[in-house]
Amino acid sequence: MIPQARFERRISMKREYMDGILYAMLFAVPAYVLGLYFPIVGGPVFGILLGMLFAKKRRPEKTESGIRFTGKKILQYAIILLGFEMNLFHVVEVGEQSLYVMVFTLAAAFLAALVVGRLMGLDRDMTALVGAGTAICGGSAIAAVAPVIGAKDRDVVISIATIFFFNVIAVFLFPFLGHTMGMSDQGFGMWAGTAINDTSSVVAAGYAYSHDAGAYATIVKLTRTLMIVPVCLFFALLVMRGAKKSGAGFSLRRIFPMFVLYFIVACIVNTTGILPAELSHGLGMLGKFAIVLAMSAIGLNTDLPSLVKNGARPLALGMVCWAAVAVTSLVVQHALGLL
Predict the structure, then answer these.
(1) 92 or 81, which is more confident?
(2) What is the rounded average pLDDT for all residues in the chain?
(3) More confident residue, 324 or 56
(4) Residues with Cβ < 8 Å from 336, sequence gap 6 or more?
(5) Which keywords belong to this entry (predicted)?
């Protein structure tokens, strides 16, 4: 039984957050709808943009705590819900050789982010977010890694904007390059699935090349999304190691990304098929909306002039990481005889 005083505090806290959640929803709903009509841009980007447009507008003071809660906690809940659309059998479908390509592209993205980020004088959080977004699945990976490393809202917005920019370019550039190089359907599907960040952009580029390439690229991309789990755990270990070295007190329970554990559970539940397909799909869609809601809240707390002023170097970093992943995917495929 929950003591009466604690129960009342929880109810009061939920009421306190509701004002901010509802305020963020004013921007999330139109952003989500716009994302359905323009999937290449996507709801999260529209959410950030709408939030930033109204960031300087006066709003009730009582909404502030709820907006912060939405940008932090609801973001984690969203990642858990996305697990209900993940199927572990996808790993088997793409095969052992495809997983080799993913391992090398992940390593290339993070190595490029680390080296170039240091040369450009970018901080750890920015390089981690751009590296994760490029290596795994764009906005979803950034949303998963951000709470693990305690990234600032400004860094989240800049990194997502960077990934979005290269997603749009990839949709038009990749099919052209694929035809120029005479790639097979499977080869191009592997390339698009491992080197383009956002799922909608992978689907668009893949099916622009051919139906078979699009189908294979989608499977590869969904498998790549599961790499969120080891990457988040890796960053959690880095955070704990840093806390030990600095002598600061730390709690394993506080630092360990429990939402990643729940994400794994959601993946397993969906893979077993014990939930109706309609329910799993609905939970996944709810997770996608929750990401848009969280991004709208983050946009509401973002200083647009500061964003513009500090966005050039992350954009350059994103370009280097993206090029590293695209080239690495081609080189590894060639070495394995997959092209």
Answers:
(1) 81
(2) 85
(3) 324
(4) 97, 100, 101
(5) Cell membrane, Membrane, Transmembrane, Transmembrane helix
Question: What is the token pair recorded at 283?
Answer: 């939970």
pLDDT of residue 252: 52
Which residue, 137, 184, 162, is CA-closest to 288? 137
CA 286 to CA 260: how far, in whole Å? Answer: 17
Task: List, for residues 149-193, the tens digit of each pLDDT value.
Answer: 888 888 888 898 888 888 888 888 999 999 999 999 999 999 999
User: How far apart are the C-alpha atoms of 172 and 176, rounded to whole Å?
Assistant: 7
What pLDDT band is residue 7 in, cutting at 50, 70 and 90?
very low
Instruction: Count CA within 13 A, CB hemisphere, residue 124.
Output: 9
Q: Quick one: three-class SS letters along the chain?
A: CCCHHHHHHHHHHHHHHHHHHHHHHHHHHHHHHHHHHCCCCCHHHHHHHHHHHCCCCCCCHHHHHHHHHHHHHHHHHHHHHHHHHCCCHHHHHHHHHHHHHHHHHHHHHHHHHHHHHHHHCCCHHHHHHHHHHHHHHCHHHHHHHHHHHCCCHHHHHHHHHHHHHHHHHHHHHHHHHHHHHCCCHHHHHHHHHHHCCCHHHHHHHHHHHCHHHHHHHHHHHHHHHCCHHHHHHHHHHHHHHHHHHHCCCCCHHHHCCHHHHHHHHHHHHHHHCCCCHHHHHHHHHHHHHHHHHHHHHHHHCCCHHHHHHCCHHHHHHHHHHHHHHHHHHHHHHHHHCCC
Query: In sequence order, which residues have a C-beta less than 8 Å from that of residue 307 and are 6 or more positions away?
Result: 52, 154, 157, 158, 161
Q: Domain of residue 319: give its range.
A: 1-54+63-336
Other C-beta atoms within 10 Å of 8: how many?
11
Q: Write down the pTM of the prediction.
A: 0.79
Are 300 and 66 spatial neighbours (Cβ–Cβ below 8 Å)? no
Looking at the 3D structure of the chain, how many domains does it have? 1
pLDDT of residue 28 exceeding 90? yes
Q: Are 294 and 78 in contact (CB under 8 A)?
A: yes
214 HSE (CA, 13 A, CB side): 12
Cα separation, 83 vs 105, in Å, equals: 23
